[in-house]
């Protein structure tokens, strides 16, 4: 079979790879149809993913945003997992024994593994995986079905923020994750202000029902957001950029007793006046992967919002052009929203 293999930092090649064996008990083999590429893929491919997030372990078949159809089913699998069913892949593998796992937070497992980062992922023609990591999804287009993974991060973020109906929420960063946060938060009844540098992304945000603001600097953005939200500032602010200036703006604008939710990842360091955290008693919340239940919620969100999510997919490439797809996605930030590699 064919697989797009990241052989070392900055180098991916299409290679012949051995097919997986017949699935054992509780396992399935899926035929990946669509694989989304995201920012963490960029960091891994370039060799800049932090050690805490998994580092760069080469060679590796990337791809953690995966949808496909079941090709083979091992004994003891759930009855709905039948050959030909379309599924979305939940990529998190937790150890089950560390402190986070013991307190019901396996999504922050100290020894976690991710399909496509620590284990081989979806950029191949066949993928063997445990049945607990596949969720049947009722979507005709596999590219949209592959959006279940980024939507799952949004579900986790909105759950962490405990967004309530009628609240005004700000999202810094109108890329794929920011747009997904907007979709989930609007489902919960929130009003949204989306902030980004790129007007094209803000145009999409407006079409999806949000108010928008083009980024200028942290001070001006924070001031506008506090005026937009009403007295005291927005009760919920999400940063989906990982940029230091955006994090500074988030902490500056959020209301006293509000929730500042960090979703974007980077190795940048943000300078924050510590007194803001105590004066406003801000809840500063980080977001990692989602848990199993939240991935199931994400699948349902995708099924309800397939038309909106289809608008996030800006480019599609065949598996044979996966190396070009990765390069294009990384080097075309003003053109790209979501790049999907079609393996079908």
Question: Any key phrases for this structure?
Answer:
6-stranded parallel sheet, 7-stranded mixed sheet, globular, 18 strands, Quinone Oxidoreductase, Chain A, domain 1, Rossmann fold, alpha/beta, 12 helices, 344 residues
Overall shape: globular
Which architecture of the largest domain does the CATH hierarchy give at level 2?
Alpha-Beta Complex
Category from helices, strands and their pairing: alpha/beta
The total tally of domains equals: 2
Helix content: 25-40%
Instruction: Please identify which CATH superfamily of the largest domain we are dealing with.
Output: Medium-chain alcohol dehydrogenases, catalytic domain
- The total of beta strands comes to 18
Q: Helix segment count?
A: 12
Question: What is the CATH class name of the largest domain?
Answer: Alpha Beta
In words, what does this structure look like?
The chain is of the alpha/beta class. The protein folds into two domains: 2-147 and 312-342, Medium-chain alcohol dehydrogenases, catalytic domain (Quinone Oxidoreductase, Chain A, domain 1, Alpha-Beta Complex); 151-286, Rossmann fold, CATH 3.40.50.720. It contains twelve helices and 18 strands. It has helices at residues 39-46, 99-102, 142-145, 148-161, 176-187, 199-207, 218-229, 244-253, 274-279, 292-304, 306-310, 322-331; strands at residues 2-8, 11-16, 27-37, 60-61, 65-73, 86-89, 92-93, 113-114, 127-130, 134-136, 168-172, 191-196, 211-214, 236-239, 259-262, 283-286, 313-318, 338-342. The strands form four sheets. Strands 3, 5, 6, 9, 10, 17 and 18 form a seven-stranded mixed beta sheet that branches. Helix 4 packs across helix 10 (292-304). The radius of gyration is 20 Å and the shape is globular. The model has no long low-confidence stretch (mean pLDDT 96).
